[in-house]
User: What shape does this take?
Amino acid sequence: MAIYREKDIFERRNAANEAKKALLERFKARPAEDDPQVLARKAERQKILEARKIRDAEKARLKQEKLAREAAEKAAREAAEEAARIEAEAKAAAEAKIREAEENERIARVLADEAERKAKRDARYAARKARVGRTPPGFTAR
Assistant: This one.
């Protein structure tokens, strides 16, 4: 089993200095802005950005077309629903008129039947009044 040994302050300081030197070397080794590789990468990034802009514009155009198409379909659907609603209301109104006419006809028949019964009753009453003074058959006076 290995024994763990802590680094002392000098070892830690030397490691930090070496890391700083390596970082500085890497920074200095970086190519300049006018280097052909850097320019090629920058041009490549610019092409990618332009292609992305074109794709985004195409995507936005397709989205607008889709929204316009959906709005037109919705308007057509609402117009059809409105026409169906108006037709249904007209049909319901016509049925209501028919029902009302049938109800009025039934009421007129009932009133005519009642008037006929009343006329018959009044005729019987008048006939009975006309017979006053005569004794009804089967009735004997005392």
